[in-house]
Amino acid sequence: MVGSSQLSYLGETERGTPIFVNRLAKEVDCIIGIGQIVPHRVSGFSGGGNIIQPGICGEETTGKTHWLSAQFQGREILGKIENPVKEEIEKVAQKVGLTWIINTIQDVSGRLAKVVAGDLVHAYRAGASRSLEIFQSRLPKETDIVLVDSHPYDSDLWVAAKGIYAAELAVKQGGVVILITLCPEGVSPSHPEVLDLVIKHLERLT
Fold this sequence. Notes:
Number of strands: 9
Distance between the termini: 37 Å
Helix content: 25-40%
Oligomer: single chain
């Protein structure tokens, strides 16, 4: 996210998301977004308009789209190519002026599987479709216990939670998820308030 002193305000989306974006975005003739497309709990898939929101937007804009995502269960967003959050992110990106994207899709070994380029919406959807083919697993049924390894996202619990998000799609209501992760940096060096909130919650329980 971008500091408030570097932001320009571009109004709101139809849904009411305020658009605060890096002021340099309005000083250029063309914006090309470069990124990769993988399944994503907040927006369904990364890539596409995400290079703008949250990429170069302010805290208020990012907070609005993340709060929108929090109103849906993970299974309603993660791995869904079209969903209300991604649609809102695309609205922000279009108003900022994102005109073209180049996105890569890697396989599970990190090798390049596909490159998409072109229109923000259409190129993203083509790339997300390929990413879904690579990362989607079909299970015969939900299970009582899910054992999940967050590798390679295991530097801290904030990123290791990606494993929990994926496990949510496989575990029964009221089931158990066991997360295996290293987390050498602890809970979250970049979000220390998370640990404080957890401690306060545990104190209330005891």
